[in-house]
Known about the structure:
Radius of gyration: 19 Å
Helix content: 40-55%
Mean pLDDT: 74
Low-confidence stretches: 1-23, 25-56
Number of strands: 9
Strand content: 25-35%
Number of helices: 8
Structural class: alpha+beta
Amino acid sequence: xxxVFQGHPMIESSAGQQIAxxxxxxxxxxxxxxLMLAGLxxxxxxxxCAQSASTSAGISKGAxxxxxxxxxxxxxxxxxxxxxxxxxVQLSDTELNSYLALVLSPNYHPSLKSIRLxxxxxxxxxxxxxxxxxxxxTSTQILSGLLRRMMTGIHTLxxxxxxxxxxxxxxxxxxxxxxxxxxxxxxxxxxxxxxxxRKQNPPIDPMQPSELPYDIDRxxxxxxxxxxxxxxxx
Length: 234
């Protein structure tokens, strides 16, 4: 491939940009799925607040680099491994949070200010700061005047739920959600999650089943980390 493009800088540059975009899109899709399904959340109380201290795990360049290396390993597996081959990759919430903060955050839509994740046994939790003015959120739900006025400016969401994966697809089952310190109906929070997800690049609706990249078959959540199972098609 390098010989084909040699001597044609514009073509070589275009091809390189395409590969970079493809790689960034796939890795971002994987992590956006993780972060969105972990919950676009922040500053919660009650059950979620009791767990919030763990979301302050340190962000580090080393953890981000470790996450990036594992993503490249998954990418390589999906393109070079023989049919039927299997591979598992473990990613900690510290690695994912560091990668999100140091590598992917510049690519967030302006409506999404920050995200932190927490993994538990069969559960996902997360915190996020959302700028509703940038989100331009409109709801199909009947909102009171107070709630309508609340959906402006920068706020925090807290959600917890279950990552449902299998056969190369993933979706998020919402269990509990808060808007700042208030409990909101799950249907309304699901709309907000979907709205934020659609603004990302690539867009994704975490409330609907989405295809996982890199021949990922399923993802298991464990305390402090996730296990990603890849399998090449026969």
